[in-house]
Amino acid sequence: MIFAHADYERERKFSADVVVIGTGAGGASAGAELAAAGHDVVFVEEGGHHPTSSFNPYITETIPRLYRDASATVIAGKPPIPFVEGRCVGGSTVINGGMAYRPPDRVLADWEKIAPELGARALEPYFESVENRVSVAPQHPDSIGEDSRMMQAGAKRMGWSFTVNQRNQRSCVGSNNCTMGCPTGAKQSTLVTYIPDALAAGARCLTEVRVERLLIEGGRAVGVVGRSVNPRTRKLDRPVEVRARAVIVACGAIQTPLLLLRQKLGRPGRQLGKNFTCHPNAKVLPIYPSEQCIEGWKGVSQAAQIREFHDEGILFAENFVPPGVMAAYMPFHGDEIWEAMSNYNQSIMSGVLVEDSTTGRVSRLPFGAPLIRYDITKLDHERFLRGIKLLAEMHFVMGADRVILPFFNQHLARSVDDLKKIDVLQTCPSTLELFTPHLMGTARMGSDARGSVVDVNGELWDLPGCYIADASLFPTAIGVNPQITIMALAKRVAQHMSLAKQAA
Ligand SMILES: Cc1cc2nc3c(=O)[nH]c(=O)nc-3n(C[C@H](O)[C@H](O)[C@H](O)COP(=O)(O)OP(=O)(O)OC[C@H]3O[C@@H](n4cnc5c(N)ncnc54)[C@H](O)[C@@H]3O)c2cc1C
Ligand code: SF4
Distance from the CA of 86 to the center of ligand 2, in angstroms? Predict the structure, then answer.
């Protein structure tokens, strides 16, 4: 059963076995697991329930409806990094690109050193179960776009290795609307997988409620208190309370620490909010000659990732975006932007993703807003410059006329020779223009209370009955798209809770 704003006029107090805050990758996977095991589950989700039939490509309608703060969210640092998060039933899985990867073996080997439960062998059944449920499979060749084919052809021309992408999709027709909500239901977000599973098993979902604090009694988490969100004004109004035997916090790697910091939790190791990682991305936007009709909006983006430099922590991919979003990325005005956008059909939105070599921190400002600090390192800056030069060179080799670069003091390269100026002009990281949709690590798992926020089963060291099941859990960045790992870890957290209760 799904509740919305108007329903809290008559009913504001609920009880359950487990209350799960958030319905994204982690919350939905954990809640579905518990509901299937026979527990009474109540989800509390700040965003609204927007069904597949409501999705469209119009950004002025979609972004305020599905994205937190209409995507006007920025990490403070050198350079500042805009980031995006979903705020709707299904969370960020509703607006993500559908790439579905396990972490590389080297990452799981590192995690295994932290705790054997986090190694490849121990996590295998969880990955397998998640991949089956969200239908991870290669893309049908007919649904792949020309921008993707050009990227693969470019990699071949340069002699670079690439991996054909696995995506969580069934019968994807390549409508290229993934980041605005999949209008065919092909993308297997939690909106169309784990949430319906949980509802079918009897779970309830309180939408349009923002949780403001946990209920704590006798040193245990026993529920949550929040307020309903008016979907027209986005103002908080009626108080809503859910009492439960256990609480799962799955608000994502920014909102989870923000919520828990309010009650000064995460005390033993003072790690809550720290260890923030975000796989920053830099765009490399080539424009090909007018006779070359790429039409990147036809067919799914990112059929492959160029992994030649993955051991150095550098990955290349493309992700086509609607015209309004592309225009926002263009560093031009007036006639220049008009001319550049008239080449929309000849452009490829490609990018360089760098695996973090540092961490940042999420903290809570006095009025409850998040402050996220993250500065890229010298090493990451060098990796960006190397990646941008290589990717731009690939596009020139493929015949691009010009490449729009991600530097505010150097917008354009017209030839491979022009790329040499990067070494001269880009000596300071502040000139880089970055972006990220991957937010991780702010309540990391561990086997030592001094170095982590939760134990290896996801329970807070300093609050029994309170579990975390989202991207915050990652002990380190994983260097690839994170949703499958989040779902797998969340499922493991939920299974442990179920087993613990049965044993009790
Ligand atoms: C544009 C974009 C593209 C991406 N592409 C990919 C990709 O191709 N492959 C991939 O693997 N990953 C991708 N990701 C990342 C992936 O989707 C996220 O890492 C993942 O969904 C995060 O899961 P989560 O459970 O931590 O949080 P989310 O999925 O963000 O869910 C958190 C939920 O909690 C709710 N919430 C937050 N605070 C509160 C509160 N106080 N009260 C009530 N509810 C609250 C939010 O509204 C939200 O619905 C992408 C993300 C974006 C935004
Ligand atoms: S390309 Fe279109 S059909 Fe395929 S998953 Fe994305 S939005 Fe859905």
Answer: 17
